[in-house]
Amino acid sequence: MSQDCIFCKIVRGEIPCKKVYEDDEILAFHDIRPAAPVHFLIIPKQHIESLATADMSHQAVLGRMLAKAGELAVSQGLTDGFRTIVNTGRVGCQEVYHLHIHILGGPNPLGPMLAH
Ligand code: AMP
Ligand code: ZN
Question: Which atom of ligand 1 approaches the CA of 97 most closely?
Fold first, then answer.
């Protein structure tokens, strides 16, 4: 846990979230600034900064996040596909340094992967 980390505060219940799913290891909640009709985040409850600092000790929780993604996407109505994004570090334009998977989708195709 990191005292100042906004997502750790969400895990501790100090900041509210619109919860999609929670278990002992992971939490999923809607993004506060949705970039698509459906946009939620899956995070590990333990504080891992990013994929740049993750290692094999995080294998189980990272696998759990991805393994749940499809089920959670369908639970939010994304029955015809979705996009999965993990921004990492300065070049990846990561804003919150608590690892998270973005799940994005809606009724229409999302368009090209990167804005040019
Ligand atoms: P990233 O740029 O990949 O680090 O994405 C961070 C995401 O966290 C952004 O899409 C923000 O809109 C989202 N975010 C920041 N604060 C909150 C919050 N309190 N609740 C939900 N989502 C948040
Ligand atoms: Zn954190």
Answer: 4
Closest CA to 48 of 104, 92, 94: 94
The reply to whether ligand 1 has any atom less than 6 angstroms from the CB of 90 is: no
Query: What is the average pLDDT value for the chain, to the nearest integer?
Result: 97
How far apart CA 45 and CA 95 sit, in angstroms, is: 18
Give the ligand at the shortest distance from the Cα of 15. 1
Domains of the chain: 6-105 (3.30.428.10)
Nearest protein CA to atom 12 of ligand 1, as residue: 33
**What pTM value is reported for the model?**
0.97
